[in-house]
Amino acid sequence: MSKTIESPAQAENFEKRISITISSVAVLLLLNSMGAGNTSSEAAFQNTVAINTYAFYQAKAVRQNDLELAANTLDTIVDTAIPTINSDTKRKAKEIAAAYRVKAASYDSDPSSGEGKKELLEKARVAEAQRDSAMSRGPYFDFASLLLQLAVILFSVVLLTKKRTLLLAASGTAALGGLFTLNAFFMLVKIPGIG
After folding, report:
1. What is the distance between the alpha carbons of residues 124 and 50, in angstroms, rounded to a whole number?
2. What is the spatial distance between Cα 144 and Cα 36, in angstroms, rounded to a whole number?
3. How far apart are CA 147 and CA 136, in angstroms?
4. 24/73 Cα distance (integer angstroms)
5. Rounded distance between C-alpha atoms, residue 182 and residue 73, angstroms
């Protein structure tokens, strides 16, 4: 049999405590919602950074290939040229081909600008890791939200019925929702099957 509140003073005090608890759980639910939104935005942003960085990497690779092809073409023309091409023209073509090769090589790595293919690939991988980290936190926020909403409902039922037997279930659900929210922000523990 459920235990109920006896005196009106006890009932009023009990109602106040439960109302404050509901408000506290609602605040925690708002923080959870904010964290979930920020995590979702971070995942989308980092995904865009990774995509754009890979596209820039590809553009560098295409440009590098074009320069190498142009250098090889110039060398082939000079090496198999019609005898009418004079030595100054051949020398100039060889210089241009060498300059193309130097420029093409600069696309591999450019630590000063951070825009060489090596640096771009690393930036893209970092963005992917940050995206994956943000995405892995999403399910924890979702599960925490579910628990916190359930806690608000249970506390509301406790408030209406004045039955303390549900108080333990409501408190446990709220505490678990709070722990999941905390874990979603800081990823202290990875729980199999959630993220």
Report:
1. 4
2. 10
3. 18
4. 73
5. 61
CA-to-CA separations, 136 to 15, 132, 147, 180, in angstroms, rounded: 39, 6, 18, 13
State how far the Cα of 140 lies from the Cα of 172, in Å rounded to an integer. 17
Measured at the alpha carbon of residue 124, what is the angle toward residues 122 and 127, in degrees to the nearest 5?
A: 110
CATH number at residue 86: 1.10.287
Q: What is the pLDDT of residues 24-58, one digit of tens each?
A: 999 999 999 999 999 999 999 999 999 999 999 99
User: How many domains does the chain divide into?
Assistant: 1
How far apart CA 97 and CA 69 sit, in angstroms, is: 9
Domain residues for the domain of 51 are 8-186
Considering the domain boundaries, does residue 194 fall inside one? Answer: no
Single pTM value for the model:
0.82
pLDDT tens-digit series, residues 67-113 = 999 999 999 888 887 667 788 988 999 999 999 999 999 999 999 99
